[in-house]
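One record is set out below.
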Amino acid sequence: MMKVFAPLPPDIEHLAKEVVDAAYKVHSSLGPGLLESVYEICLALEITKIHTERQVAIPVIYDGIELEAGLRIDLLVDRKLILEIKAVEEMNRIFKAQVLTYLKLTGLRLGLLINFNVTLIKNGIERVIL
């Protein structure tokens, strides 16, 4: 049986739409084939109107102890939306699992997994909801 989630708040849906629009703009300007870090920087620049943080560390709580385990969110938008940026030939299931883990560790509900190495950016965007 499929798990049913409560609808996302309108402000988070609005943020997601703004990010998708920005991803379209970056992709149409640069196209596929560049490094992930280039897309991350350009997307961060494109969405500077919204509070955006790059490479945000996520601690892991294990046995009641907060540990710095090297986990980093590519982009965190308005402290509500996680963006995981990729520039890969083929998506791997582990990427979605990574976003789900970030959502669980942060208590956030929505992440966008964006692969810029595609002909059409709409084929490179996946919503991950917790």
